[in-house]
Amino acid sequence: MTILNALQNISDAEASYYLKKYYGLLQPIDDSPGPYTGAYFESIDIDVAEDTPNRITGSDLYTLTTLQITVRRDGGFGILTYEREAIVSLLQKIPDEPIEDLSPEAYEQYLGRSSPAQELWNLLTRTGTEKPKWGIGSTTASKIMARKRPHLIPIQDRIVDDVIGRDRQNAWELWWQTLTENPTLVERAKTLREHTIDPLGIRPELSTLRVFDVVLWMHGKEQKA
Length: 225
What we know:
mainly alpha; about 55% helix; about 0% strand
């Protein structure tokens, strides 16, 4: 299974239903559920996020709870204090460009092995250092980085990984290759995005990555159920 195969196996009607259910936008009926907590991942303290694009804030760490993730005290303290300057320096070098728009050269510059995004990933996960681990693995790191760069960094999640059969493949490269080689998927995301319009105007427009993340995650949940 690949990302392309997985998405092709989900009809537009199913994808629309998944998005509306996730964001609590189904036509109201007596027992209709409200939005999933993850529906608030983009919107919580969005004004703070917009004012601090190059700093991971307490609000950013709190939003992880909407995706069923918490950051340990030592990790949160480090991110907000003594690692703050290094994080700001790296985020300043990482644009929030849509991953599907990156040329091979731009991909290598922003997401390659020697890129600032990889450096930030290593800092958050404490990879390649003798510093003690502080409980931030790949899932948590991806969600922190996706909060800061939603158009560039895909969220990694066990359920989605199972649906697309990612195994140990590089998630950034996998998404980049899939979207650049299949531009019809980007157009599909634009169409599906229209089904997630926020009636209150609080949530920012979803990225291509986030549209498909929600669709694949909901599909995986339905399959398990």
